Amino acid sequence: MASRKPGTVVERKDRDGYEARVTLPDGRRPTKYVSTKKQGWDWVSRTLADSQRGTLVIDDKRKTGDYLANWLDGKIGIKANSLYNYRLCISYVLPHIGNTRLCDLKPPQIKRSFSKLATSKSAETLNLTHRILKSALEDAVDDEILSRNPMRRMRAPHSGTGSRHAMTLEECRAVIQASEGTRWHTLFLLMATSGLRIGECLGLRWSDVDLDSGQLRVQTQAQRIHGEKGVHLVEVKTASSRRPIILPPVTRRALRQHKATQGEEELKCPPDLWRGQDLLFCSRLGVIYYRSAVDVVFKRIANSVGIEDATPHTFRHTVSTLLQSTGNPVTVAQALLGHSRPSMTLDVYSHTTKDALERAAVTLESLFGEKEKPLTTEAG
Questions:
Q1: Domain residues for 72?
Q2: CA–CA distance, 192 with 205 (Å, rounded to integer)
Q3: Given a cut of 50, is residue 217 above it in pLDDT?
Q4: Domains identified in the chain, total number
Q5: What is the pLDDT of residues 153-212, one digit of tens each?
Q6: Helix (H), strand (E) at residue 68
Q7: Long-range contacts at 15-24 (CB < 8 A, ≥ 24 apart)
Q8: What's the Cα-to-Cα distance from 23 to each of 5, 26, 44, 50, rounded to whole Å?
């Protein structure tokens, strides 16, 4: 008895064209309507080959927007802020690809979408949106909804790190000196001598600091949580962020004085109004600071000394650049800043200074420049 063919291509009676059908080992019988018999047999061959390789995905009518909505609903166990960012980034691409069938989504359409977004979104936002969308489509491959990720070979947009900069040592000193006599002086000095993120500074508790040994332990950070009021203390995200910091003596002295001043404020404050959480930096009532408050004060102080394009985060860039320009290995800056990879420190937080470029020019001149010939006098 002859074996049954795994596929058939028959002419349609109700309209022009052919109906191609194939029987898969698992019993499924997908169908494809084509214009010619050759197209039908070509489809049968491809379908059988994909089935044997384990890459076969049956045509799915679901739209990309529907898939992404279900994908977001399935993101369980991630923090509220992260989920909010996921939803926000996905909302940017939905107008461009949401109505396209997921199985019809191709790289050119995705690239056009990001080109349109580039006119209104920052480079950082584009980069994050690219990563999130690529991850969602990769999950579709894992779930055998797609045979391949259309973004697999797509490069992420430039992250825009070129716009970031560091202050010079003189500028950094000027800001710190201008803050003397204010309740912000110790905070700015700590940021300038530790490279801590602003959220990490505002989340520090006195139990995290040993002023005798000069060691500080980063464990929590101050953070707004989407959908909730106020600022919360939360654990830092990664193992590399949970790190020890050795404080220089100048910062230890400032922290001792700051602690004494804070103790006096607590004594003056009525007990029923004090909201202290053992924080290094808080209001006169012990309330945790909003980051925006620090941003406003820093900008005012920086502007007073002629610096108009810096933020509190600029201290972090400055620390990395100063450490490396004074001969410290990049791994030292990496450990201090809490990066998981040295490349992150080099790509994002190191900035070539004018002094470094001038030193490089002097070095190259000494290697390749012509030696001046001594002056000689003619005999006669």
A1: 64-162
A2: 19
A3: yes
A4: 3
A5: 898 876 554 444 788 889 999 999 999 999 999 999 999 988 899 999 999 999 999 999
A6: helix 64-73
A7: 20/44, 22/47, 22/48, 24/51, 24/56
A8: 8, 8, 9, 13
Cα end-to-end distance, the chain, whole Å: 120
Does some domain include residue 314?
A: yes
CB 319 within 8 A of CB 245: no
Note if the pTM is more than 0.70. no
Torsions phi, psi of 210, nearest 5?
A: -115, 100
Residue 216 DSSP SS3: strand
43's tokens? 């489809």
* Residue type (1 letter), 309: D
pLDDT in tens, 259-279: 999 999 999 999 889 888 899
Q: What is the pLDDT of residue 7?
A: 87
Per the model's pLDDT, the better-predicted residue between 367 and 109 turns out to be 109
Residues 98, 72: Cα–Cα separation, whole Å: 14
Residue 340 · residue 331 · CB < 8 Å: no
Supply the pLDDT for residue 369: 59
Q: Which two tokens stand for residue 312?
A: 């509190």
Please indicate, yes or no, whether residues 268 and 249 belong to a single structural domain of this protein: yes
